[in-house]
Amino acid sequence: MNVTFTKMSGAGNDFIVIDNMNASLRLSETGIRALCTRRTGIGADGLIMIEPSDRYDFVMKYYNADGRLGSMCGNGGRCAVHFAWSVGACTRHTTFEANGNRYEAVITGDETVRLKMTAPTDFRDRFDANGYSCYYINTGSPHAIVYLDSTDTFDVDTSGRAIRSNRELFPDGTNVNFIEITSSRSLKLRTFERGVEAETLACGTGAVASALVSYRLGKITAERVDVTVHSGDILTIDFSRDMNEVFLSGPARVVYTGRVAVN
Ligand SMILES: N[C@@H](CCC[C@H](N)C(=O)O)C(=O)O
């Protein structure tokens, strides 16, 4: 069967996005993994299907590159909103469902989307993880946080994989974020992603986690934080002081559209 897809980039986090609003398509884990594999497939950090919802404009189903259902994807959510709007599934201001939660978003420009996130949970104060001083928070996805003096030449893959695979600390695995604080309202971020099992060029829920933990620790003092991700793009996180209202803003771009054979 041939399927039409759109390849999108959310600040460098890249996704295969498919319109499944008529709920006719079912993809297997191996099929999704094959599509997401670089060189032999389309290649992407994850695959997103937008599907019909009883309560909201649509449901976002997010699969990691390993073919398994992922937890919340912030950049994927922003791309899904832009895509859903482009196929007429919603207006520029939309509500949708992902991982059983309600999300609200606004398309703020030609290629920018602002997404309201869920309030963070499960903050863990400093602990040792594989020799690193580490923090933890769940922003819709699980995130470990490590502070570095400089992220530029750091080996994210080796250390990220070690922490991600620490089953004693993270039985379900975790995404791992390495942060360099660059001012009282900005930071640089590099993320090792669970489900991709490699560093990605950006991570939305990771950017949110980095901003909120840094604010909580007093490393950041503003309630609006610019996060420069590995692609060089900037994701902006703004939030209320109690962190109950949290927003993720940044680019969501169409790279190309195509048709592909799926099993
Ligand atoms: N890249 C995402 C996070 C995706 C979820 C994650 N890999 C997981 O299932 O742990 C983002 O932009 O938030």
UniProtKB/TrEMBL annotation:
The keyword Lipoprotein does not apply. It catalyses: (2S,6S)-2,6-diaminopimelate = meso-2,6-diaminopimelate. Its main location: cytoplasm. It is found in: Cytoplasm. Pathway: Amino-acid biosynthesis; L-lysine biosynthesis via DAP pathway; DL-2,6-diaminopimelate from LL-2,6-diaminopimelate: step 1/1. Belongs to the diaminopimelate epimerase family. This is Diaminopimelate epimerase. It comes from Prosthecochloris ethylica.
